Amino acid sequence: MRRAFQELAGVCIVVFLALSPAAAQQDEPLQSDAEASSETISDASTGAEAESEPIAEEASNPAEELVYVPPRRGHPRVRRGGGMRSAGIQLPEPLVLAPLDHIGLTTSESPTLFWFVDGSAPADTRFELTLIGSAAIEPLLQARLPVPEAAGIQRIDLRDHGVSLLEDVEYQWSVTLVVDPDRPSRDRVSIGGIARSRDTAPDRTPRALAASGLWYDALEALSEGIRANPDALGLRRMRDSLLRQAGLDDAVADGP
């Protein structure tokens, strides 16, 4: 009798363990590293799409005008001009996309700069970028730029050059068409100003950036949106409006 009772108790213990949560959890298949990685990539992709949504929404709301509110600092910083062009030679003229009558602001440590060229250039044409602090003697950056393949808006990513701007420091940047290395007076040059600001915008949409006086950030947001979607007419109109408000009519409706 005692032996039968012990056997019955042993069966009960086995059944209890089989039905316990711990045992059930051990029987569940483990998630593989590949599955976990796939979920991470999916989440990142979703985040990137969500980040681009505000700009797309901006373009789909043409009723609300983009208004650029200039900061109360600085004085005219843009100059465009140079010597006489050689007879019979049609050379393009650069124009930095910076406000004509004040220093443009950015919150980026290494912002993207934009400039405009009004015509195609021969393959041997030489364009140079110079960036220098307002109180500096030596340039922070001097670099030769790629020759534009066509007229329009061109871009310069300062991250590609390893350049970082300090906050609340004014910089001057220029794009120069070198006509004759031995005669600098004949160069075609355009000069603008930039400063890295501590100010921020309520969000990173082009309208909010423009309303906060962040010229370079607003221009970059619009240009990146256009590059991602060249057929976005709403974004192109907004960028044209921003350029006109800064006195840069020559660059309107051009470039990607």
Describe the structure.
With 256 residues, the protein is α+β, with helices and mostly antiparallel strands. The chain has a single domain (1-256), classed as Immunoglobulins (Immunoglobulin-like, Sandwich). The protein has helices at 2-19, 21-27, 33-59, 206-211, 215-228, 233-245; strands at residues 79-82, 94-96, 104-106, 112-117, 126-133, 141-145, 152-157, 170-178, 188-196. α3 (33-59) packs across α6 (233-245) and α5 runs antiparallel to α6 (233-245). The protein is globular, with a radius of gyration of 30 Å. The chain starts with a helix and ends in an 11-residue tail after the last helix.
SSE blueprint:
Blueprint: H1 2-19, H2 21-27, H3 33-59, E1 79-82, E2 94-96, E3 104-106, E4 112-117, E5 126-133, E6 141-145, E7 152-157, E8 170-178, E9 188-196, H4 206-211, H5 215-228, H6 233-245
What are the defining features of this structure?
256 residues, alpha+beta, Immunoglobulin-like, 6-stranded mixed β-sheet, 3-stranded antiparallel β-sheet, disordered N terminus
Q: Short summary of the structure?
A:
The protein has 256 residues and is α+β, with helices and mostly antiparallel strands. The chain has helices at residues 2-19, 21-27, 33-59, 206-211, 215-228, 233-245, and strands at 79-82, 94-96, 104-106, 112-117, 126-133, 141-145, 152-157, 170-178, 188-196.
